[in-house]
Write a sequence for this structure.
């Protein structure tokens, strides 16, 4: 089994078309088809069904696809790590982060990292924790900033708690006379709700159900920017991290009593040693958090848990 064959297989699986896969991998279609056939012969099972011109994965192909993606991703990581060890001043960090962190402190961390390591390529993937964990498992990310606890424990990951953040009720005006709100105060209030699979959606629904009620949605399905914009437009209120309101003067953040908080962790795969570039990013991230906490410059509602012990 050759990496080139796996690359051709993944290309056909993703395009569902041999000609398009050949164009994508820059190889003649007969050569691609020949390599796919050789892979099928070696594995002892067909990988694609070609009935009536439609290309679909067989059960064997379905089983191979996630493994092939991970093997290709790991091979690429290995090539880059060897290049770094050879003394080349280049590399890559593929980082996943939740939208609230992308909209908050992550930009400053990335700016500091780029200033210290200008030759290292930064790739940022924005998404919910479940999506980021899946991408880590597939080898498509080196590190991810995710929300704990995970919906289901994943023994293949190493997680390191780095900060806690307060959740607040965002509204277009002060929602009441009190300087705080209780979860029960959300009962019957129109909520602007994030899309399914979003960490903040699950946190809000869980808190409301523990208080004994199902929340009422004014609108649902948005990402962070859309939810904040809908709240600004007066469609309803939303439970959000306090940090995302720093540059939103049209929104008011009301604390929740008792405090509703969540923990942010830096995650990586347990079975793959982080690259030197990933280690460098972790060092810059933790250094930033430690310094900001010491200087009192962290956004309101953020508590640093960072230390600088090696992972």
């Amino acid at each position: 089994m050759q990496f080139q064959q796996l690359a051709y297989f993944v290309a056909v699986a993703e395009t569902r078309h041999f000609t398009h896969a050949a164009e994508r991998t820059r190889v003649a279609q007969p050569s691609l088809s020949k390599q796919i056939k050789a892979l099928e012969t070696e594995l002892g099972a067909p990988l694609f069904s070609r009935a009536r011109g439609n290309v679909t994965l067989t059960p064997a192909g379905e089983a191979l696809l996630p493994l092939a993606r991970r093997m290709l991703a790991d091979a690429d990581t290995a090539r880059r790590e060897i290049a770094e060890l050879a003394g080349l001043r280049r590399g890559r960090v593929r980082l996943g982060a939740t939208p609230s962190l992308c909209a908050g402190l992550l930009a400053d961390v990335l700016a500091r990292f780029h200033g210290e390591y200008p030759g290292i390529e930064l790739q940022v993937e924005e998404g919910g924790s479940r999506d980021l964990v899946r991408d880590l498992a597939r080898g498509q990310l080196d590190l991810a900033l995710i929300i704990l606890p995970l919906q289901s424990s994943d023994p293949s990951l190493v997680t390191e708690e780095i900060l806690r953040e307060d959740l607040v009720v965002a509204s277009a005006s002060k929602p009441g006379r009190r300087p705080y709100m209780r979860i029960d105060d959300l009962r019957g209030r129109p909520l602007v709700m994030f899309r399914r699979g979003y960490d903040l959606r699950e946190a809000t629904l869980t808190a409301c159900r523990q208080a004994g009620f199902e929340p009422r949605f004014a609108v649902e399905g948005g990402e962070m920017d859309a939810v904040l914009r809908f709240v600004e437009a007066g469609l309803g209120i939303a439970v959000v991290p306090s940090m995302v309101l720093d540059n939103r003067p049209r929104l008011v953040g009301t604390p929740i009593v008792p405090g509703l908080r969540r923990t942010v962790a830096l995650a990586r795969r347990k079975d793959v040693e982080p690259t030197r570039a990933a280690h460098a990013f972790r060092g810059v991230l933790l250094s930033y958090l430690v310094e900001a906490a010491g200087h009192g410059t962290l956004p309101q509602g953020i508590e640093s848990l960072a230390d600088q012990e090696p992972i």
About this structure: The chain has a mean pLDDT of 87. The longest helix spans residues 59-85. The chain is about 40% helix and 25% strand. Residues 35 and 272 are 29 Å apart (CA to CA).
